Automatic annotation (TrEMBL):
This is Polysaccharide deacetylase. PANTHER family: GLYCOSYL TRANSFERASE-RELATED, SECRETED PROTEIN. Signal peptide: none annotated. PROSITE patterns: NODB. Coiled coil: none annotated. Residues 55-65 have a biased composition (Gly residues). Residues 1-12, 43-54, 80-99 have a biased composition (Basic and acidic residues). InterPro entries: Glyco_hydro/deAcase_b/a-brl, NODB_dom, Polysacc_deacetylase_ArnD.
């Protein structure tokens, strides 16, 4: 019933807009429409805890205000016009809020549909690549990247101004990050597999193992993978002088910039070993952060670094570009194994660069 009335009154509103609107009766009618639409907005809403609820309060709730509003024209005083104006403004506000809410809901629905579609495609790819389960969809990246600090026990003297060293990214989301080191194995299957499965990962490259085939990593980069620094020749850095460390780290910054057009912001010291000089050298040539890892993936097992031998939100998982000659399987075998572990534990793989 109310809906019919509302429609009539909305039509009246439209008519009024065309004729310029003089009569108070029309204003009152508008008022009814406004209250009606505010209430409709409220009942269509989640239940009135938010802005919709406040609009409802103003109107007194339910059908009551509609009755009294239709009575007002009879006792229209001098400030009735002002009141009606105020109500009109309120109605416009409520209407705008309602529209904004509708847009938000539509956007959320669209995003949901996009995720569902991507997951359906991913399920097909998971079957093709013989994954035990379809990888879970990662939540949208954070609007603001979390503040990352050096892990307790990983500090160096004077480290407060140096790039942070960490094994986990602070987040409450059930996501982990996949990082692949060195670059010896250049398996084209890996590129195809990860692209089709849409699993993000980051590469930490050492020049001495990639210099026989830079183009493999160019292809990787073209597929959305960020290439980071893992030194020129993979030495044990704390054993080197500051100058030598700088050459290893900054030399690789230059190489990657020259070959791939982008200077890395992340650096991982070989074996996870570093000292204050390492971090100073890294900072001097543009390194922003030093992600280590909390677990390591192999084709047939995981190696855990945390006491509970488990994954945690924001954990960084390490693995390597290795082939059948170096470990018990291919790169796709390793991915199958690590993805089973990650998915079984209810985690999704997110893009490290979205968080760091
Ligand atoms: Zn390495």
């Amino acid at each position: 019933m109310q809906l019919v009335r509302q429609n009539e009154e909305k039509a009246a509103e439209r008519r009024k807009r065309h004729t310029g609107g003089r009569a108070r009766a029309v204003v009152a009618v508008l008022l009814i429409a406004a209250l009606g639409s505010a209430c409709a907005g409220e009942s269509g809403d989640r239940g009135g805890g938010d802005r919709g609820g406040r609009g409802g309060d103003g109107g007194g709730g339910g059908g009551g205000p509609v009755e009294s509003a239709s009575a007002t024209p009879g006792r229209a005083g001098p400030d009735a016009g002002k009141k009606a104006e105020a109500k009109k403004a309120e109605a416009r506000k409520a209407d705008a809020a309602k529209k904004a809410d509708a847009v938000k809901k539509a956007d959320a629905k669209k995003a949901e549909a996009a995720v569902a579609k991507a997951q359906a495609l991913r399920a097909v790819a998971a079957k093709k690549w013989k994954l035990a389960k379809t990888p879970l969809a990662a939540p949208p990246p954070p609007a603001v990247k979390p503040r990352i600090t050096t892990r307790k026990g990983f500090e160096v003297t004077g480290g407060a101004t140096l790039p942070p060293v960490f094994t986990n990214v602070p987040t409450k989301e059930k996501v982990v990050f996949l990082t692949i080191d060195d670059g010896a194995e250049k398996d084209p299957e890996l590129l195809r597999m990860m692209t089709e499965l849409k699993i993000p990962y980051s590469a930490f490259l050492s020049d001495y193992v990639i210099n026989d085939n830079y183009s493999y990593f160019k292809k990787m980069q073209a597929r959305g993978v960020s290439l980071h620094n893992h030194t020129l020749t993979h030495p044990y850095l704390p054993g080197l002088s500051y100058e030598k460390q700088k050459r290893e780290i900054c030399g690789q910054q230059e190489k990657i910039q020259k070959r791939y057009g982008k200077r890395p912001e992340l650096f991982r010291p070989p074996y996870g070993n570093y000292d204050a000089g390492t971090l100073r050298a890294a900072k001097s040539c543009g390194v922003k952060a030093v992600p280590l890892w909390s677990s390591e993936a192999f084709p047939d097992h995981m190696e855990w670094r945390e006491w509970d031998r488990d994954l945690h939100p924001g954990d960084i998982v390490l693995t390597h570009f290795r082939g059948k000659g170096e470990w018990k399987g291919s790169m796709p075998d390793m991915i199958r194994h690590v993805m089973k572990t990650i998915t079984d534990k209810g985690y999704a793989v997110a893009k490290l660069e979205d968080y760091v």
